[in-house]
Design brief:
The protein has one domain (about 1-215). Strands 1, 2, 3, 4, 5, 6, 7, 8 and 9 form a 9-stranded antiparallel β-sheet that branches. With about 220 residues, the chain is of the alpha+beta class. It has 5 helices and 9 strands. It is about 30% helix and about 30% strand. The protein starts with a helix and ends in a 9-residue tail after the last helix. The longest helix has 20 residues, at about 1-20.
Length: about 220
């Protein structure tokens, strides 16, 4: 009975917000990811990767960055993905540029990776809210391979770890600000057989360089 009441309340709130508060969505100015630096300190990305049209349409992403940053040390390597959605309201006819961000925790098992550890970690970095924020930390496995993954949602000045909180703020900000834009920020680092210490150090070194740039590309 309680679950039914919650579901009815959620639907009623959804109807109220969409029909009585939200008008035409605000699209804040931002830089395109084509301008994102390929060199961040000692870290360099040789080439931006491109999605195929079918993947782009499935994700509904408006603009994105996919880059493998590395240093001369072959063990220092990190995949950086930032996908920006100018709207998370599915447009009629579908296609790119609309629809909610797909949680990595849902997508990874579908691509053959098993999540073998999951936690939330507090990080403090340039470009994030003062005092830092909680983000998601995963260890994933496919066969003998292991990877460390950090990800979060960076949306309208917030850093959000939980999927349900992302949905709450999405409805709230659509009603209050007429905005549903936001980004998924993800770092993927290969792990050695010795454990995750090396991968963790790589994340802690490069992530602040990336997050310092993000406000221009994912507006607050």
């Amino acid at each position: 009975m309680i679950k039914l009441a919650v579901a009815i309340g959620f639907l009623a709130l959804n109807f109220y917000v969409y029909n009585y508060f939200a008008t035409e969505e605000v699209r804040p100015p931002r830089k395109p990811f084509a301008a994102f630096p390929l060199e961040l300190g000692e870290w360099k990305c040789a080439e931006r990767q491109q999605m195929t049209d079918d993947i782009l349409a499935n994700l509904g992403v408006t603009d994105y960055l996919i880059c493998d940053y590395g240093r001369t040390d072959p063990m220092s390597h990190v995949g950086v993905y930032v996908g920006y959605h100018q709207s998370q309201v599915r447009q009629e006819g579908g296609g790119a540029g609309g629809g909610q961000i797909h949680p990595p925790s849902h997508c990874l098992p579908g691509s053959g990776w098993d999540i073998i550890a999951s936690s939330k970690e507090h990080v403090e970095m340039p470009g994030l809210p003062p005092g830092g924020a909680l983000v998601n930390r995963l260890v994933i496995a496919k066969g003998d391979a292991r990877q460390l993954v950090y990800y979060w949602y960076q949306e309208r000045g917030r850093v959000i770890a939980d999927d349900w909180m992302k949905i709450f703020w999405l409805f709230w900000d659509r009603a209050r600000l007429q905005r549903t834009d936001g980004s998924l920020v993800r770092f993927t680092i290969p792990m050695s057989r010795d454990g995750d210490a090396g991968a963790e150090a790589v994340f802690r070194e490069i992530a602040p360089l990336v997050t310092a740039e993000l406000p221009s590309y994912s507006p607050g």
